[in-house]
Write a structure and sequence with these properties.
Elements (H helix, E strand, L loop, with lengths): L1 H16 L3 H17 L10 H24 L5 H27 L4 H12 L6 E3 L3 H4 L6 E3 L11 H4 L3 E7 L20 E9 L2 E8 L4
Parallel strand pairs: 1-2, 1-3
Antiparallel strand pairs: 3-5, 4-5
Helix pairs in contact: 1-3, 2-3, 3-4
């Protein structure tokens, strides 16, 4: 992120000095995309999967500036050197982070999918929660995300009957307490709870009591 910020500052400086209309147009367009994505920074709950659009737009903006510095005919040698240095720093930093992430992988999502695949085989059943699509990918059950004041937060249990389970983090952090706001006590309506984790996130899969 620090490298991207430095590139952004260089891009603004170059925008005022450059006569390359194409560069100016693409820079402004990519910058506006970053602005549109930046509203996500105000989210109270901001897991990595929500950040993909923001990171992609920042990466595009940085790529526009670096490619201009590296390949434009109007750019001086000193600017090219700066671009090469920044590019090298980014490659080394990302390579280090990727290597570390790969060595620490735990296959948690695959393990959770294996569990839900074995636990539920009924395509008429639904598992609720913003984590549900990722953790029930191989299950035959349906998955429906739930967020307070955004999606599926009104009469949730009635709308999605029959509900097989609900995946929620502690204090329903991922849904901004969508169930609590409806007066739903997840422990009270469940007959068992399975503890799951992915990376730094810990959550419960509440298996809802089934009634004949």
């Amino acid at each position: 992120m620090l490298s991207s910020f430095v590139v952004f500052i260089l891009g603004i400086w170059e925008w005022f000095r450059s006569s390359d209309v194409k560069f100016k147009a693409i820079f402004i367009t990519s910058f506006l995309w970053v602005v549109l994505e930046s509203h996500k920074l105000a989210y109270s709950y901001f897991p990595p999967r929500y950040q993909i659009g923001l990171f992609f737009s920042i990466g595009l903006l940085a790529s526009v500036v670096l490619s201009h510095f590296l390949f434009s005919q109007e750019v001086t040698i000193s600017k090219r050197v700066i671009a090469f240095i920044i590019f090298g720093v980014v490659v080394c930093e990302n390579g280090y982070n990727y290597t570390g992430a790969y060595s620490r992988r735990q296959n948690s999502i695959q393990q959770a999918n294996d569990y839900t695949k074995k636990a539920i085989q009924d395509p008429n059943k639904t598992i609720l929660g913003s984590w549900a699509p990722a953790l029930t990918w191989e299950s035959k059950s349906r998955a429906a995300p739930v967020w307070h004041n955004i999606l599926n937060d009104k009469n949730t249990l009635e709308v999605f009957k029959p509900v097989a389970g609900i995946i929620a983090e502690q204090y329903e952090a991922e849904s901004d307490s969508a169930y609590a706001h409806q007066g739903i006590d997840l422990n009270a309506i469940s007959d068992s709870v399975k503890h799951l984790s992915v990376g730094i996130w810990n959550f419960n899969l509440y298996w809802i009591k089934q009634h004949d």
